[in-house]
Amino acid sequence: MTNFSLRAGLIGSGFIGPVHLEALRRLGITVTTLCDLPDRAAAAAARLGIPRAVSDYRVLVRSPEVEVVHITSPNRFHRPMALAALRAGKHVVCEKPLALNSRETSEIVAAAHRAQTVFAVNYNVRFYPAVLAMRDLVHSGQLGDIIHVNGSYFQDWLFKDTDYNWRLLPREGGPLRAVADIGTHWMDTVSFVLGSRIAAVFAQLGTHHRTRQRPVGEVETFSRGTRSGKTVTYRVRNEDFASVLLRFQNQAHGNLAVSQVAAGRKNSLRFELYGSRQSAAWDSEKPETLWLGRRDEANQVVVRNSPAFGDGARGFTDYPAGHVEGFPDTFKMLFRAVYARAMAPQSKEPVLHATPEDGHHEVAVCEAILRSHRARAWATVRAPTG
Ligand code: SOE
Fold it and tell me: Ligand 1: does its nearest atom lie under 6 Å from the Cβ of 15?
């Protein structure tokens, strides 16, 4: 195991902050400082066993005890926090989507170039061994040319009109919700696997609950309860579900369905690649297996670390086959790659984590999706495509 001497600071202790913390601890990385709102920082730090609590992110990013800043706050804070961390010369791991719009994300891209530190957008799905294996199947030509891609990202934690979280408010999360929150995971993952970004989209957005009940007080992602039990009715201004047709730069065609009101689907990201030689499919709720489809031979379901799984995930799995690796392990693998890069900046290892440019591109795709929905027409993604 690598001995990482770099220390982390964590901004945000909601649903995803503790996931970062746990993965960092599994890697032996010390988290010295937690930043959260003044009324929760000290209690959250005590609960999570983090020695120092602050309520001003500028204090955290300037701290000499923090070399890597993890931003796990609501989306609207990503820009100022990322820019402050970069100005302080820190490495950054920022939650997705990178910021509220492509004007903000392009500022982050420019600042990251100036800072020359490591900056990762936390698209963790890239680091499932099966996703890395799929990528290898594509790049080695085993699937042939990719003709089309099909898939979905479905959840049900916003199924009821009483389900509530900051993501439902455009000023906190941005103009799109389901697409930005989970659709971008799918789009980033598939672009990563194909080695090709999304060039154009045709989208239709839908809102099942036109009004919802907002609790008085805050509610964390995936949690059910409200603190006071009291609610107020409010009008919903972003989508519960979406259907998107996609054209990738390599001309592959895609169709994606996104929903946060799909009863029974807890956190299911699924994609199927149909190539000119064979097909491959994966579902994040069955993370350890890949389906391989053939026209003239038997199809296969292959298990991680078995021969037919291939070599694509080498270095990114720690346990033998049958010892399931899943969601928390993807964070561990992503952070291991980030901290290794930060400690060896001259390394020639390929960069597998999402870069600021990738994060910028995903936000530009979201903007194209909104334009397409409004115009009822194909929309081109307006972002540098490098
Ligand atoms: C909520 O929809 C959420 O926590 C996302 O924000 C995460 O990125 C995803 O991994 C699980 O669902």
Answer: yes
